[in-house]
């Protein structure tokens, strides 16, 4: 029996992948499934990273995203509407060109486009400030709600048991997991608690992944006509601000890099964020100033010192997949498959660089180059 702690997208997808390989799986979630970062994310999926490990992983993950609705027998609303990064200086254009070269090397078809071409993709875009765009039409978005539901239902069909409102309190050698609903004996544990992961690692005396939770927020507008801002649009020099039309209802989700180090249980939105994000959003797409905001919410980026997740075996029969900053949703299909195959078969066909994501790297004083983050 395999016990997964944490019912976000990583835990639920990993449960499904393990069950697909014939394992008995139980998932413990202290609140409701998705209540951590997963249901609070911006829905974006991209292979436009700036290092080999993340580009390869996300290139593969996008291939998995394409299959998910059919495989899980539920529409996860994956759409390849692209990501459009916009450069505001010649220096940034040069950086974009270097990133594009690296992405192309691993088969990601990003290309440099003119502001006029960008405006064809995003009609209400303010092109005045931009010199060029980095455009990958294969990036996209999906519904966090439908995706988690699809993995859960498919997992249940294969026998996975989900225990919601069941908090893990302690872990004893062997493994005995003590929860608010009693004790469970399992052979293997997967810690998928992301922003809360240190608490779980500390329960086995191995608090070696120094994750810090940072509160990140989003606002969402009322629905606007479809086809206006379908890709995620982000000028990194404008405080990593971004806008993207929700794939489900057409409202515009707006984010920016204003963050607060805080407990992952603190999900109160701030007025300071609303002011900051809207300042940038109306610069990127000026007509947004006429659109009403209908929601604002907060979640957490669980950040490691190099903004790359920690994935792998921490001690014998205890695995982690934690610290996903702004990338856990998009990476989940690839990471879940890789981890399940590694646990069950000892190897995986997913191009996941175990050395790069090694949970012990911080103890060894090794840091990777920072994963390219936005928001
Ligand atoms: P979570 O969804 O946080 O799940 C962990 C779960 O563990 C929680 O449900 C929690 O309740 C549970 N738990 C904790 N402690 C215990 C315990 N003791 N016992 C039992 N259960 C426990 N990612 C993208 O890929 N694309 C995006 O566009 C994107 N945008 C984002 C925008 C914002 C504002 C935020 C906040 C995040 C964004 N992310 C994005 C990041 C993404 O949401 C996360 O990386 C991802 O959801 C992590 O999933 P997870 O399953 O690892 O963690």
UniProtKB/TrEMBL annotation:
Gene3D superfamilies, sorted: D-Amino Acid Oxidase, subunit A, domain 2, FAD/NAD(P)-binding domain
GO molecular function, one term: oxidoreductase activity
Key words, A-Z: Oxidoreductase
Stored InterPro entries: FAD-dep_OxRdtase, FAD/NAD-bd_sf
The protein's Enzyme Commission number: 1.-.-.-
Domain FAD dependent oxidoreductase intervals: 3-341
Protein name, as recorded: FAD-binding oxidoreductase
Species per Swiss-Prot/TrEMBL record: Pyrococcus kukulkanii
């Amino acid at each position: 029996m395999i016990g997964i702690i944490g019912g976000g997208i990583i835990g639920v997808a990993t449960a499904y992948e393990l069950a697909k390989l014939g394992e008995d799986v139980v998932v413990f979630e202290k609140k409701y499934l998705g209540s951590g970062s997963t249901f609070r994310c911006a829905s974006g999926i991209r292979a436009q990273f700036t290092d080999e490990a993340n580009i390869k992983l996300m290139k593969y993950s996008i291939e998995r995203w394409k299959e998910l609705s059919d495989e899980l027998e539920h529409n996860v609303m994956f759409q390849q509407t692209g990501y459009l990064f916009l450069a505001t200086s010649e220096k940034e254009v040069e950086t974009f060109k270097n990133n594009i070269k690296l992405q192309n090397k691993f088969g990601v078809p990003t290309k440099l486009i003119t502001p006029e071409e960008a405006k064809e993709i995003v009609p209400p875009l303010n092109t005045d400030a931009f010199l060029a765009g980095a455009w990958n039409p294969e990036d996209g978005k999906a519904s966090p709600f439908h995706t988690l539901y699809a993995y859960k239902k498919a997992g249940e069909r294969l026998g996975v048991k989900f225990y919601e409102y069941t908090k893990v309190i302690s872990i004893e050698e062997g493994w005995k997991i003590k929860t608010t609903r009693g004790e469970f004996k399992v052979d293997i544990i997967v810690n998928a608690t992301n922003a809360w992961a240190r608490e779980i690692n500390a329960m086995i005396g191995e608090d070696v992944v120094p994750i810090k939770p940072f509160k990140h927020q989003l606002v969402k507008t009322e629905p606007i006509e479809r086809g206006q801002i379908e890709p995620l649009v982000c000028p990194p020099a404008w405080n990593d601000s971004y806008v993207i039309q929700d794939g489900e209802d057409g409202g515009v989700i707006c984010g920016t890099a204003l963050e607060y180090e805080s407990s992952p249980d603190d999900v109160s939105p701030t007025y300071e964020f609303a002011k900051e994000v809207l300042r940038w959003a109306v610069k990127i797409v000026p007509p947004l100033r006429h659109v009403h905001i209908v929601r604002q919410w907060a979640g957490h980026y669980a950040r490691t010192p190099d903004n790359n997740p920690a994935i792998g075996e921490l001690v014998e029969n205890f695995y982690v997949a934690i610290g996903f900053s702004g990338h856990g949703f998009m990476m989940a299909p690839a990471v879940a498959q890789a981890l399940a195959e590694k646990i069950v078969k000892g190897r995986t066909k997913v191009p996941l660089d175990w050395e790069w994501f090694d949970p012990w790297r911080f103890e060894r004083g090794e840091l990777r180059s920072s994963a390219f983050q936005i928001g």
